[in-house]
Amino acid sequence: MAELRPESIIVSAGRPEGPGAPLSQPPVLTSTYRHDDGANRYLRNEGSDSVGALEAALGALDGGTATVYASGLGAVAAVIGTLPVGSVVVAPEAAYAGTVALCLNAQKLGRLTLRQVDITDTDAVIAELDGAALLWLETTTNPLLGIPDLPVLIEAAHAAGVRVAVDATFTTALNVRPLDLGADVVMHSATKYVAGHSDLVQGVLITRDAELHEAFVTARRLGGAFPGAMDCFLALRGLRTLAVRFERAQANAAELARRLAAHPAVSRVRYSGLPDDPFHERATRLLAGYGAMISFEVAGTAADAERVCSSLCLITHATSLGGVESLIERRAMHEGDRSLGVPETLLRFSVGIEHVDDLWGDLQQALGN
Ligand SMILES: *Cc1c(COP(=O)(O)O)cnc(C)c1O
């Protein structure tokens, strides 16, 4: 059969095979297995069909071999854990807060040196690569929604002998497959779009490098970040609808970004799908879609922005993203974002799959028409 498109891989990969097999992989809810087949099997060490089915699907989607972890941050920790003591890591100044905290903690313990840089500034990244062991990239910066030039950065890093890992949580494999661009590792917080229902925490690493894959499996076994069978079942069930969920969420986001940009109570909208966004050209060139995250600034004060959040009814005031339901939060309430100079009134809006006019109605009443 011809190579399948992502929408078909999402639906078909990771299903049990063979005569009489169940259509879906059932969650195998056990920690241990009987010895009488001669094997010595324990869930954390050897895994199970539950995690294997999810890994088969996520690996096929990103074009590599997947290792699933009990959280996205567990996956990040596995990548950092492969580095020898004393390594230099180049990472985004606005990386996911947990990733930065993990690296800063490792630096404090004397295990690595962190160089943070604006990854949307290609020359600035290249200037930091000398002597580095790892370049950590994110396909979209958070919460300013800048787009780095992935292919150029990956090529420059490899020319300098630097390994590249890409957190592609915001874009999903549907908008970009970093391994196809030469990245050594792609990471997703499966908590977000992959599982898509805000009902579990999970992460995944995918690589084409057999040695790295082996290291990631070892890191999971020794670090203990093994995912639960029920979470694997739910994540795979959620993944089956990723393409339609993401398509709707992106369409909603494009429309809402346009309407927000014209709203008098909104002073600025950051969304690479808008033609006048500073990252529009780059996103159009590099990504298959503009994503479903919008950041916008409310005209006025932090209190005005907080009031918008607490006045919303359909859109929930909560952190996180990537679920079927729309979520919003004022990012400067987080210390890490405030210290980065994120505008006080900036709201990060994870657009869900509700009807676009209901979302707009909710925004209008909260913004005061
Ligand atoms: C949520 C998130 C993470 C961390 O994932 P968890 O599943 O919450 O541990 C890492 N990177 C990005 C971009 C995220 O949004």
- The mean pLDDT is 96
Distance between the termini: 53 Å
**In sequence order, what are the helices and strands, one letter per element?**
HHHEHEHEHEHEHEEHHHEHEHEEHEH
- Structural class from helices and strands? alpha/beta
Radius of gyration: 21 Å
Cofactors, ions and other ligands in the entry:
pyridoxal-5'-phosphate
- Put simply, the count of helices is 15
How many individual β-strands?
12
List the helices and strands and how they pair.
Elements: H1 6-12, H2 43-46, H3 49-62, E1 65-69, H4 72-81, E2 87-92, H5 97-108, E3 112-117, H6 122-128, E4 134-138, H7 150-159, E5 163-167, H8 172-175, E6 185-189, E7 203-207, H9 210-223, H10 229-239, H11 242-261, E8 266-270, H12 280-286, E9 293-298, H13 302-311, E10 316-317, E11 327-330, H14 335-339, E12 346-350, H15 356-367
Parallel strand pairs: 2-3, 2-4, 4-5, 5-6, 10-11
Antiparallel strand pairs: 1-7, 6-7, 8-9, 9-12, 11-12
Verbal overview:
- Helix content is 40%, strand content 16%.
- It has helices at residues 6-12, 43-46, 49-62, 72-81, 97-108, 122-128, 150-159, 172-175, 210-223, 229-239, 242-261, 280-286, 302-311, 335-339, 356-367; strands at residues 65-69, 87-92, 112-117, 134-138, 163-167, 185-189, 203-207, 266-270, 293-298, 316-317, 327-330, 346-350.
- The strands form 2 sheets. Strands 1-7-6-5-4-2-3 form a 7-stranded mixed β-sheet, sandwiched between helices. A 5-stranded mixed β-sheet has the order 8-9-12-11-10, with helices on one face.
- The radius of gyration is 21 Å and the shape is globular.
- Pyridoxal-5'-phosphate binds at residues 71-73, 96, 98, 138, 142, 167, 169-170, 189, 191-192, 201, 203.
